[in-house]
Amino acid sequence: MGGPADIDGKSHPETDNFLPCKFVIDGITYSSAENYFQCAKTTNDTDRNMVQIMSHGEEDAHHAAKIPNAMDKFAQSSE
Question: What domain of life is recorded for the organism (predicted)?
Fold first, then answer.
C-alpha cells in the first residue's frame, strides 16, 4: 500500500502518495497526497488539524503526542 507505481517496468517516484510535496487547497496546506486523503476522511476541524500535525514530521508528531488525549483521538479517527 502506497509507494511509487511501476509503469512499464520502471518505478516512478512521482506517483507515490507519500511523496513530500506541499500544496494548498481552500487555504489549507497539505504535505503530501496521503496527508490530503487522510484529512478528507475526518469529520471535524479538531481531527483534521491532528492529522495535519502528525503528518508534518517527527518534531510536530512529538509535539502532538504531548497534547492530552491526542494519540487516542488520532487512533480513533484512523479506524
Answer: Eukaryota
SS (HEC) of the chain: CCCCEEECCEEEHHHCCCCCCCEEECCEEECCHHHHHHHHCCCCHHHHHHHHHHHCCHHHHHHHHCCCCHHHHHHHHCC
CB 31 within 8 A of CB 23: no
Q: How many CB atoms lie within 10 A of CB 9?
A: 5
Q: Give residue limits of the domains in the chain.
A: 13-77
Model confidence pLDDT, tens digit, residues 29-64: 888 888 888 888 889 988 888 887 776 654 444 455
pTM check: above 0.70: no
